[in-house]
Specification:
globular, alpha/beta, Alpha/beta knot, 24% strand, 136 residues
Length: 136
Amino acid sequence: MKIHLIVSEKEKRIPYYHRQATNEYSKRLSRYASVRIIYRSSMKKSAKESSSSKAFVFRVSSQGSCLSSEELAAMIKNLAGSGHANIHFCIGAAPDREDKSISISPLTMSPSLETVIMLEQIYRAFRIIRGEPYHK
């Protein structure tokens, strides 16, 4: 499975501590899936990539629906079982196409922080799917 996080923020603006956390969770996730983080100043090019690759596209937005870790795990497992080899999480701006809008929190936060939180939640989802321990 391939996971892409498409972030509408310039990479050079990412704080060092967010970059460290992003690298750590990307490394942990590599046991379960291929992870790629794409930084963009706009979503236009990213949306074209999403629609052309037939990926399932999540928009991460404060207006999206809140999911528990277990619900996210079930969605990822169902997507993998139904032939979706690519899952895209668009963070920080609306893509041209989205299959589901999800929320980390109703609070507004920076795209780089949302990226760290989404990576942690995706990692947690794979641990749940595999029946491996994670802390609640």
